[in-house]
Amino acid sequence: MAEKIKLYDATKCIGCRACQLACKQWNDLPAHQTKNTGSYQNPADLQPNTWLLMRFQERETNTGEVEWLFHHNACMHCTDAACVNVCPTNALFHTKYGTVALDQSKCTGCKECVAACPFNIPRFDPKTNKVSKCDMCFSRLERGMEPACVKACPTGALQFGDKNKMLRVIKERFLALGSKGHLYGDKFLGGTHVLYILPEKPDVYEAIPANPKLPEPLVVWKDLLKPLSLLVPGIALVGAFLHYLIKGPKNTISKEEGGV
Q1: Region for residue 2 given its phi and psi (left: phi exceeds 0; alpha: psi -120 to 50; beta: otherwise)
Q2: 87: how many CB neighbours lie within 10 A of its CB?
Q3: What H or E segment, with its residue span, contains residue 245?
């Protein structure tokens, strides 16, 4: 099965939030009361019931005018996903499409994935003691359908397809944009399965980490402690085998109890 890529082209985005609504509808995510924070962005952040959020960022241009920067904020579906690496129950897992899905029935609410994600994506719900996040509409992919957010996008800002095909689309788009586009997501954590084309450099965006990195404790666990922990059962087995060769099988009846 070919890897899939979702492309968000911010240069085509009009901030209509059709993707955000489609995500809620397909995944049957309930609405919650929100507060006006002085922005068109609503809610203010990702939540257990909001897996995809359109972020609205206002900024002043060099000419003194105000312009919008839009940002499609959801799981990046990393190839080397920190959340999958730290999940103790395998509730988070890689699918055959290269995306990262979540089996909530296995989630124990340990919140290890929340702490590990360099993009600040998973959200913990204290009411259910579960974590939730975008799974790239895994149920739709299994039916040969594209993600709901992509299906709902009216401008082509969101596209989805096989990795090789989408890389060709990105190349053609950059030829059209010239020097005005910036690709984001291809160089982090083995590459992500959500890629952005941005009109500005990533560090201009408030909610986009310009250089996402794994937390230091996770690096230590992944590179040193986890491989060591995998060796421990093998070492114990070798030790038991050597003991058997040297000492022989354990005699369970002692001489004092009438053993020979």
Answers
A1: beta
A2: 24
A3: helix 226-247
For the chain, 260 residues long, give each residue's pLDDT as a single digit of tens.
Answer: 689 999 999 999 999 999 999 999 999 999 888 888 888 899 999 999 999 999 999 988 888 888 899 999 999 999 999 999 999 999 999 999 999 999 999 999 999 999 999 999 999 999 999 999 999 999 999 999 999 999 999 999 999 999 999 999 999 999 999 878 999 999 887 889 999 999 999 999 999 998 888 777 665 555 554 554 445 455 555 555 554 556 555 544 444 444 43
Q: Are residues 50 and 10 in the same domain?
A: yes
Nearest-angstrom CA–CA distance, 112 and 83: 7
Classify the C-alpha dihedral 25-30-35-37 as positive or negative. Answer: negative
Task: Output the six-digit token pair for 236.
Answer: 């114990």
Quote the CA–CA distance of 172 and 188 in Å, as a whole number.
Answer: 22
The range of the structural domain enclosing residue 236 comes to 216-257
**Quick one: 184 and 222 in the same domain?**
no
